[in-house]
Amino acid sequence: MRIEIVVFDGFDELDVFGPFEVLSMAGMDVRLVAVERPGMVTSMRVCNSRSPRRWVRPTA
Fold first, then answer.
1. Torsion over CA of 7, 11, 14 and 19, rounded to 10 degrees?
2. Per DSSP, what are the bridge partners of residue 40?
3. What is the pLDDT of residues 3-13, one digit of tens each?
4. How far, CA to CA in Å, does 36 sit from each of 21, 30, 46?
């Protein structure tokens, strides 16, 4: 199962990195994806993170 966690400028680190660590330790394929474009995003506490992928809405 692949899980995509959406990140955006102003994200809360605990909302992203907590689930990322727990789910990846459980053996799931977890990816960070950006809302607008791949690249650098900055958290609410000015932690920079690079997201190599852009989120794409799944088709029905």
1. -20
2. 50
3. 999 888 898 98
4. 23, 19, 18
